Amino acid sequence: MNEDKKNAIIVSLNDDNTEIVELADTLNYQTLKIFIQHREQPDVQSYIGQGKTEEIKEFLEKNEKPIDLLIVNGNLKPSQWFILEKKLNIDVYDRIRLILTIFEKHAERREAKLQVRLAQLQYERPFVRELIHRARNGEHPGFLAGGEYQVDDYYEMIKRQTKKIKEELKNISDNRELRRRHRHKSGFYLVSLAGYTNAGKSSLLNLLSKENVKVDGKLFSTLSTTTRKISSNNMPILLTDTVGFIKDLPALIIDAFHSTLEEIKVADIILLIVDISEEKETIEYKLKTSLDELAEIGTTSPIIIVCNKTDLLNEKQISERIAYIQKKGLIENKKTVTISTKNQENINELLTTVYDILPQLTRIQIKLPINEETQSLISWIYEKASVKDISYTDLVTLSVECNPEIKNKIISKCQSLDGTVSF
20 to 30 A Cα–Cα from 200, which one of 52, 146, 181, 350? Predict the structure, then answer.
């Protein structure tokens, strides 16, 4: 059952408000009106000037529908937030708080919930300091801590919770690192899916792994790391999907999700998913944002640009968009593949590109006697490596490409069955 839509108004300093409206919609808010005050810098006191504040106040008083929330398309200082709520007598969210509330709604696993809570606490801390300052001056705001709490006690709780959550996330991160090492030693390559939120990462994960990970169509529907094995071509590749990027992703979110984003940093290859069906300028800024975020994380792995949703365009439109981002210098020295996850187009080309770039592939030829133990070993090799060719005569002969991490294990197992290995 769908929740009833709540009503919101948006305050912005520019005309670029598509994304903030989408964020509001993701949180089930219908935007009734956008108030724009064109200015280079926010008003120091209340983000917008006195005249615009009065205009909004009059709208709130006269509008027939109740307004549940005022959303600022920007980041508020605690003093600006306090003044806006006090003058307009309405809950006020800035862009960061809106994103964090979406994260809270979508977090399902323990780690994601902890990461979101850590980001919320880091966000709330300066606001609670403002509350303490205002309360000591005799003012009584009711945000975050609420009227039932003493804000100074709440501030101490923030510090205690922050420390405890960081310790728990460190333990989860350490365990993930152990799993990564085990996977590498077991011969698996790690390929991470990255990209702007809602570009189609989860859909590609489902297609390549033949799984059924939740695909919502809303912004930030994926927060937790999801890892699955590619189901084709017998190459041991693990795909990882994680939280999507967004323009000006707050540092506190990057910090809180550090252990999750680490999955991208340590990948052998990064598939950077782009929604090619959008307008050229939108593609440009989303691709640039994603590349900037990858640089911020500190990635050094090869990046394949995967242009998704080609089913929504004709060939000419696709070519024009690719040429546009090439001209902007965003895909220099990077392989680019166009696909449609919906129609399953060019997926084999994408896989071939991945295999060609995988580091240090080793090819070996194996000859084994035919017996029951050999069949068991062959099944194991199919799980751990890419079998390029297999033939049966008086012996079984396999041509295999594998990760160097697994090569010695294959050799040892073959020799234990009186098989031979050549390079």
Answer: 181
Domains, the chain, in order of start with CATH, read 6-105 (3.40.50.11060), 107-167 (no CATH), 187-357 (3.40.50.300), 362-422 (3.30.70.240)
85 alpha carbon, distance to own chain's centre: 32
Please, which pLDDT band fits residue 1 given cuts at 50, 70 and 90?
very low
220: confidence class by pLDDT, cuts 50, 70, 90: low
Distance (Å, rounded) from C-alpha 74 to C-alpha 384? 49
**8 Å CB contact between 158 and 121:** yes
| Better-predicted residue by pLDDT, 154 or 207 | 207
- CA distance linking residue 390 with residue 370, whole number of Å: 13
Largest CA distance in the chain: 92
How many other β-carbons are positioned within 10 Å of the β-carbon of residue 234? 17
* Confidence (pLDDT) at 258: 75
pLDDT tens digits, 384-409: 888 889 999 999 999 998 888 788 88
Nearest to 294 by CA among 321, 273, 323: 273
Residue closest to 383 by CA, chosen among 160, 186, 171: 186
The pLDDT of 88-113, averaged and rounded, is 90
Helix 78-88 vs helix 110-136: crossing angle, to nearest 10: 70
Residues 245/253, Cβ–Cβ less than 8 Å: no
Strand 420-422 with 362-369, pairing: antiparallel
- How confident is residue 234, by pLDDT bands cut at 50, 70 and 90? low
Helix 78-88, helix 50-62: angle, nearest 10: 40
* Both tokens assigned to 69: 């929330």
Distances (CA, A) of 60 to 2, 23, 39, 74: 26, 22, 23, 21
**In terms of Cα–Cα distance, which of 290, 232, 242 is closest to 264?**
242
pLDDT tens for each residue of 3-41: 578 999 999 999 999 999 999 999 999 999 999 999 999
Q: Are 151 and 135 in contact (CB under 8 A)?
A: yes
- Cβ neighbors of 386 (< 8 A, separation 6 or more) are 233, 234, 235, 236, 355, 400, 401, 402
Sort 269 into a burial class: Cβ within 10 Å, 0-12 / 13-18 / 19+.
buried
What pairing do the DSSP bridges indicate for beta strands 189-195 and 269-275?
Answer: parallel
